[in-house]
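Quick entry, no commentary yet.
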Amino acid sequence: MTDTIAAQTPRQPGQPLALTRKDFVSDQEVRWCPGCGDYSILAQTQKVMPDFGYPREKIVFISGIGCSGRLPYYMNTFGFHSIHGRAPTLATGLKAARPDLMVWVITGDGDALSIGGNHVLHAMRRNVDIKLIMFNNRIYGLTKGQASPTSEIGKRTKSTPEGTIDRPIMPLSVALAAEATFVARSVDTHTEHLQGTLERAGFHHGSAFVEVLQNCNIFNDGAYRDFTDREVRDDRMLVLEHGQPMIFGKERDKGIRLRGLHPEVVQLGHGVTEADLLVHDEGAEDPHLAFMLSRMWWPDYPVPVGVLRNVARPTHDELLTGQVEAVRAQRGEGDLAKLLDSGETWTVS
């Protein structure tokens, strides 16, 4: 964080906060490979930050290890570049101690879903009020091209020269199973959609998990090109809109309906109407619909993007603060010295 922020006078109540994207651009040289999708994610993140109304000294970006881990250096806010997989743990502690801060976790598919898997699970299930953005390029980029937890079966990499035999993790399914209260997906090159998705995550009160499908043009170029390229994406991606039927296609002539317990792609017309289609409900407390969407993948289905789930629950820091206040009201202020001298103690001579 630069000295200009450290010296910035905190905003007074009721005082307007006039910040722009430039205010969130640090003085550090951005150093990713030319053409990396990280540049787009950084740009969209900087663009949405003024919308939240937080002064920069109240915003913290925390990252782990990986190419994504550089992002806090490029944000003109406070930040941590932590150790591999532990960013959600630091974020949990920070929100417990300083619930007034806006905390973002920046991570990658390797950082979040291998060594960091348990930490992500528990941050989501506790509904810690953080915004976790996971860059998913389906490869280990920083360590030069090994298979990651999201690499597809058969993927030939430096660590799997004959093709990986491990079934890939589906990140959104994991986040939903862990009871994250906001779950969404976007694409690095779909800048307008990505910006809107990050903005919605930022305004969410609780655990937000956003998967960004991101290209690594050095070690896994074209990871999602089959369905994200401009020429094909309308027919191969499903843009989710709350309260709207699940329609896709360049001519808006295809849809998703439920056949038994499974989604089915249908062509509108010839007896099939919009009334037959599934209607997206991101606010459903029951996550079954969102979980079904998280399992849909090309080429069997169009790939869903947008907000899969958005529900309201008490956050971890709210519940923790409530417990502390209740105990204080019942027992009074604590006495650390008395606590240390109580219970089963003994003296070793």
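second:
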Amino acid sequence: MVQGSNAVSTKEVRRSSKRSHAFRPHLEKIGGMERDVKKYVSEFCQINAPGTFVMRTSISESINHLPNNANTIINLKRINDVRGINKFLHNVNDHLVDGGLFVGCVETKYLRKTRIFNKFPKGLAHIYYVLDFFLKRVFPKFPITRLFYNVLVGERNKVLSRTETLGRLYAAGFEIRSMKFIGKNLYFVASKVKEPLFDYEPVYGPIFRMRRHGKNGKVIYVYKMRTMHSYSEYIQKYVYDTNNLADGGKMNNDFRVSTLGRLFRRYWIDELPMIMNLIKGDLKIVGVRPLSSHYLGLYSEELQERRLKHKPGLVPPFYVDMPKTIEEIQASEMRYLQAYEKSPFVTDVKYFCLAAYNILLKKARSK
């Protein structure tokens, strides 16, 4: 059954229940974790209010049985088990009013690891975790192994990082209002703020393209080795609003970066594919960093206009001045651009030599 006054027909409920056991008033259970979940959700909405629907479903078609003007949709089925997550989130968005709430939960990659190591003896836990990681984290990402994964596992019990979960929500038109660990899952409350994007299916391979601004405002796609979890690009503003910037202009405590990604960044392995952009003519050897729309929006209008007159570069003036704050980064780039406009060749040679000295001898690094 559906909880809420805007109930769908009994026939629709029965049809949905046969397929997915979708509609059940789970939050009415009192005891243990159910009580904690109910208390958390009640901070944001009235569970018994008209327009609030409580479900436990993994099938996106089940959402279609709800009215198109729901105020709150609560799904107690883990996102990990949902078939076609992006389609599911699109349907939820379509059935909510503007500002409506979607409440759900996920077992994150970290929680999954914790569960495995609590369940098995230490040695066996490591073996199980490695096999589980490759089967349920790596195999679904590549076309060659995806078919094998679907035959063995299907769409159940997917391994999702917190980054991927948040990224999928933001790409589907939601904004996070709250998150809380309850029991073995991470619960979230998200509000509908816009229509879903339709061009956000990520590439999971080791090399991917980043949308950046080039000369004259032209959109260029910069190649890099993957250092972040998938869907990271869709929560850049969220990470900035939550954590702000660290020294050097990077995001502070950026949880989107993977463990292997931190190693790649330390030794510039992630930037090697940018040589393809150099060959294509999108970048030059020395120049300001190619920036995303969000990061470029943090700059002054004067610097934005000046940047767009020139090609970005592989080696930025950052490695010459080693600025720490966003204001210092802007001042560094402005000095470089002013010098470059007066003497392009001499300026680039000078900056390249100084950057090489700082990188090789002073061990200058960008986080």
